[in-house]
């Protein structure tokens, strides 16, 4: 699977070299400008965007990858609070950090490069200062862009006008006016994010392209599919050690067991997809291939039992097809059966996303389902760790399990809780 991505990237090498030459020529007129680009001593300032509530787990991943700039959690909780912003985690690094974060992060949605920050209270000031940024590092002359703009408590409050001025500044810098397009992940247009707060402008360059939950394996989906990033966050929040048995008795299209297998095998989630940085003029294909090969050396051969079941035969077929595309089908035992029929051996973790809310059933049926689920777990899985995603606390209470429901997320626009505990 990793070799597939390396081969695909070889086709980009020639075109990337051509773009680099062109962008260098277009930037000559502004080479001497003083740039408000952000580059702290540790490298470029980066931001891993994640869903609200995922921040501790995204930070955990960054620490594991050696990409976090803070001390370990035990040393200073105040430092963690400062670094964990709403909706993401700040870190710093050079190109390798950008590549590694996109390749390896399981809970993040995007990785942004904080490109520039400056005061701008007039459109002329915005255009002049945006023009001084080294756009030639990330864009080729005339390359289309999409700009997402937010303005808050600033003299420049018209977001569309701000987007046009930033686009014009890029044209000033590179010598060719880029086309400003509406952002679409299908078009793979380079996304720029402009944020104005109290007349302070921050410009970020998206390094990821399509959202990172798009691993490339989930083409078939059952009812109410779970995003891959949410499944990964559930696994991390559950405390699963990747060595013990994992069971999902409501597997649907298989996202939780597939993410578990990827995690246990050490397969990087971004190994078989493209990223926005691959179209940058300074894209380092050799570095990317080096990271792919390094990750291949860390693959685990022996995995714990990963068991996934669902009463819907069609869902099981979809899950098996998705697992095949992810390259982990041989590590997951898929079975079509009702939750009452599960009979796992030993001890381990149950991590699952049962039906809830508007998903399929009436409130009465759902209460009965959760009550039955709790009885089955107490009978067949005593001592197991459990993590259950649900939108309604009364349903979790109907299971009869003692659960910590302090983790609150959103799934498909629906507020949800992750109930965690030990089956007693």
Describe how the helices and strands are arranged:
Blueprint: H1 2-10, H2 13-26, E1 44-50, H3 55-64, H4 77-83, E2 84-85, E3 88-93, H5 95-104, E4 108-119, H6 123-131, E5 145-152, H7 159-174, E6 190-197, E7 200-206, H8 228-238, E8 245-248, H9 255-265, H10 285-297, E9 306-310, H11 313-326, E10 332-336, E11 348-352, H12 363-380, E12 385-390, H13 393-398, E13 404-411, E14 414-422
Parallel strand pairs: 5-6, 8-9, 8-11, 9-10, 11-12
Antiparallel strand pairs: 1-3, 1-4, 2-3, 4-7, 6-7, 12-14, 13-14
Helix pairs in contact: 1-10, 5-10, 6-7, 8-9
Shape: elongated
* Cross-sheet strand order for the largest sheet: 2-3-1-4-7-6-5
Q: Oligomerization state of this entry?
A: single chain
- Can you count the beta strands? 14
Mean pLDDT: 88
Determine Rg (CA atoms, Å). 24 Å
Describe this structure in words.
- The protein is α/β, with parallel strands linked by helices and 424 residues long.
- The chain contains 13 helices and 14 strands.
- It has helices at 2-10, 13-26, 55-64, 77-83, 95-104, 123-131, 159-174, 228-238, 255-265, 285-297, 313-326, 363-380, 393-398, and strands spanning 44-50, 84-85, 88-93, 108-119, 145-152, 190-197, 200-206, 245-248, 306-310, 332-336, 348-352, 385-390, 404-411, 414-422.
- β13 (404-411) and β14 (414-422) form a beta hairpin.
- Mean pLDDT is 88; it is low at 8-34 and 70-84.
């Amino acid at each position: 699977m990793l070799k597939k991505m390396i081969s695909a990237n070889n086709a980009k090498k020639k075109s990337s070299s051509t773009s680099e030459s062109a962008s260098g020529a277009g930037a000559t007129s502004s080479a001497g400008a003083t740039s408000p680009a952000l580059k702290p001593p540790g490298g470029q300032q980066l931001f891993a965007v994640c869903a609200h509530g995922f921040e501790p787990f995204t930070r955990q991943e960054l620490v594991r990858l050696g990409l976090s700039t803070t001390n370990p959690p035990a040393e200073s909780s105040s430092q963690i609070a400062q670094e964990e912003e709403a909706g993401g985690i700040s870190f710093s690094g050079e190109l390798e950090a950008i590549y590694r974060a996109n390749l390896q992060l399981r809970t993040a949605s995007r990785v942004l490069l904080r490109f520039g920050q400056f005061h701008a209270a007039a459109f002329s000031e915005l255009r002049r200062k945006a023009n001084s940024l080294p756009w030639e590092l990330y864009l080729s002359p005339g390359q289309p862009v999409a700009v997402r703009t937010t303005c808050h408590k600033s003299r420049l409050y018209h977001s569309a006008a701000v987007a046009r001025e930033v686009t014009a500044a890029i044209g000033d810098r590179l010598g060719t006016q880029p086309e400003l397009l509406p952002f679409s992940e299908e078009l793979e247009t380079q996304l720029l994010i402009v944020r104005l707060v109290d007349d302070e402008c921050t410009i970020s360059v998206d390094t990821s392209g399509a959202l990172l939950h798009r691993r490339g394996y989930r083409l078939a989906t059952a009812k109410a599919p779970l995003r891959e990033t949410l499944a990964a966050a559930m696994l991390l929040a559950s405390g699963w050690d990747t060595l013990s048995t994992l069971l999902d008795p409501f597997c649907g299209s298989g996202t939780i067991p597939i993410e578990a297998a990827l995690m246990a095998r050490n397969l990087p989630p971004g190994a078989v997809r493209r990223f926005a940085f691959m179209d940058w003029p300074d894209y380092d294909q050799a570095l990317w291939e080096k990271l792919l090969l390094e990750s291949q050396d860390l693959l685990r051969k022996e995995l714990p039992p990963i068991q996934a079941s669902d009463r819907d035969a069609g869902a099981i077929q979809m899950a098996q097809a998705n697992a095949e595309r992810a390259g982990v089908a041989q590590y997951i035992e898929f079975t079509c059966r009702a939750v009452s029929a599960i009979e796992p051996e030993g001890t381990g973790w149950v991590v699952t996303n049962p039906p809830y809310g508007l998903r399929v059933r009436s409130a009465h049926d759902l209460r009965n389902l959760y009550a039955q689920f709790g009885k089955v777990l107490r009978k067949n899985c005593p001592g197991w760790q459990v993590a259950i995603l649900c939108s309604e606390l009364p349903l979790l209470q109907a299971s009869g399990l003692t659960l910590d429901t302090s983790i609150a997320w959103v799934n498909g626009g629906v507020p949800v809780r992750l109930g965690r505990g030990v089956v007693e």
